[in-house]
Automatic annotation (TrEMBL):
<dbReference type="InterPro" id="IPR017689">
    <property type="entry name" value="BamD"/>
</dbReference>
<dbReference type="InterPro" id="IPR011990">
    <property type="entry name" value="TPR-like_helical_dom_sf"/>
</dbReference>
<dbReference type="InterPro" id="IPR039565">
    <property type="entry name" value="BamD-like"/>
</dbReference>
<keyword id="KW-0564">Palmitate</keyword>
<protein>
    <recommendedName>
        <fullName>Outer membrane protein assembly factor BamD</fullName>
    </recommendedName>
</protein>
<keyword id="KW-0998">Cell outer membrane</keyword>
<keyword id="KW-0732">Signal</keyword>
<keyword id="KW-0449">Lipoprotein</keyword>
<comment type="subunit">
    <text>Part of the Bam complex.</text>
</comment>
<comment type="function">
    <text>Part of the outer membrane protein assembly complex, which is involved in assembly and insertion of beta-barrel proteins into the outer membrane.</text>
</comment>
<dbReference type="Pfam" id="PF13525">
    <property type="entry name" value="YfiO"/>
</dbReference>
<comment type="similarity">
    <text>Belongs to the BamD family.</text>
</comment>
<keyword id="KW-0472">Membrane</keyword>
<feature type="domain" description="Outer membrane lipoprotein BamD-like">
    <location>
        <begin position="41"/>
        <end position="234"/>
    </location>
</feature>
Length: 283
C-alpha cells in the first residue's frame, strides 16, 4: 500500500494539537463539517487522520480523511485520504462506509497503485461479516465475487495470495452450510431433501473438506431408501478418493453389513462422477 500506516508524526504533533482544539468533542463518530477545519491545509488534516489511526480512533480518523476529500477534492491528498478513509472505516467495522469509499477509489482511480488494495478492502468488507454457518449466506457469495475480482484483476499484487486463501475459506463455508442443512433433513428421515444437499457438495464443492462426509451421508441416505446401487457407487468414490478417512470406514461397515461392497453400479449421477473422476472418462 502506498500510504504508510506507521510514519512518525514529528512536526505534525503541533498541527494535530491545534486541530484537536479546533474540533473539540464531535461525539460518537457522527460528525458535522467543522468550518474551522478550512483554516488548515490538506496535509495537516490528513496527518491528523493518521494520528487518530495510530491512537486507535478509526472513527475520528475516517472523519478527518473525509474532510480532506471534501475541502481539497482535487489535491493529491484527497486521493490518499480516500483510500485511508476506506481503511479507517474498516478498522471501525463500519463495513458499508468502507465499501463505499473503496468503490469510489476504484471508480475514480482505476489504474492507481492502490486500486488493488481498494478492491481488497471492498472484498474484506463482505468477508469479515461472514458469521457462523447458520446465518444467511448472501454475504458469502458477495465475498466470493469480490475476492475473485482481486485475484483476476490484480493477480500479481500482494493481495492476490491472501484473496485466494480467503476465497477457499469462504467456499468451504458455503459447503458447510449445505452440509448442515443436509444433516438436518437426514436426521428427520427426509432422505430426498438431504440427498439434494449432499449432491450439491459433491458436484459443486468437491474441492472442499466436506466432500468425504457428503459421500458418506449419501451412502446412509441411499441405503435408507433401499437404493443400493447409488449407495455402493457413493462408497466406491469415497474409497477411491478418501480411503484413509473415518467416513470411508463408516461407509464400508454400513455397506458390508448389508452384504454389499463399495462398487460403481448403475447409470445415475454418481456413476457419471465415478467414470469422470476415477476412470477419467468424460462421455
Amino acid at each position: 500500500m502506498a500510504v504508510s500506516m506507521s510514519r512518525k508524526l514529528g512536526s505534525v504533533l503541533l498541527a494535530s494539537t491545534l486541530l484537536l482544539s479546533a474540533c473539540g468533542d464531535r461525539g460518537a463518530g457522527l460528525f458535522a463539517p467543522d468550518p474551522e477545519l478550512e483554516n488548515f491545509t490538506a496535509r495537516q488534516i490528513y496527518e491528523r487522520g493518521e494520528y487518530e489511526i495510530e491512537n486507535r480512533a478509526p472513527d475520528d480518523a475516517a472523519f478527518y480523511f473525509s474532510e480532506v476529500e471534501r475541502l481539497y477534492p482535487y489535491s493529491d491528498y484527497a486521493k490518499r485520504a480516500l483510500i485511508m478513509q476506506a481503511y479507517a472505516y474498516h478498522l471501525d467495522k463500519d463495513y458499508e462506509n468502507s465499501r463505499s469509499a473503496a468503490q469510489r477509489f476504484i471508480d475514480f482511480y482505476p489504474v492507481d497503485d492502490d486500486a488493488a488494495y481498494a478492491q481488497y478492502l471492498l472484498a474484506l468488507s463482505y468477508y469479515d461479516q461472514i458469521d457462523e454457518v447458520g446465518r444467511d449466506q448472501g454475504l458469502t457469495f458477495q465475498a466470493l465475487q469480490a475476492l475473485r475480482a482481486v485475484i483476476e484483476t490484480y493477480p500479481d499484487s500482494e493481495y492476490a495470495r491472501s484473496s485466494v486463501l480467503k476465497f477457499e475459506l469462504a467456499f468451504d463455508h458455503l459447503a458447510a452450510k449445505e452440509m448442515e442443512i443436509g444433516r438436518y433433513y437426514l436426521k428427520r428421515d427426509n432422505y430426498a431433501a438431504s440427498i439434494n444437499r449432499f449432491r450439491v457438495v459433491v458436484e459443486d464443492f468437491e474441492t472442499t473438506t466436506h466432500t468425504p462426509e457428503a459421500l458418506h451421508r449419501l451412502v446412509e441416505a441411499y441405503l435408507s431408501l433401499g437404493l443400493t446401487e447409488e449407495a455402493q457407487t457413493a462408497g466406491a468414490i469415497l474409497g477411491h478418493n478418501f480411503r484413509s478417512t473415518e467416513w470411508y470406514e463408516d461407509s464400508y461397515r454400513l455397506l458390508t453389513g448389508q452384504g454389499l461392497e463399495p462398487k460403481a453400479r448403475g447409470n445415475g449421477w454418481l456413476a457419471s462422477i465415478y467414470r469422470q473422476t476415477v476412470k477419467g472418462k468424460w462421455l
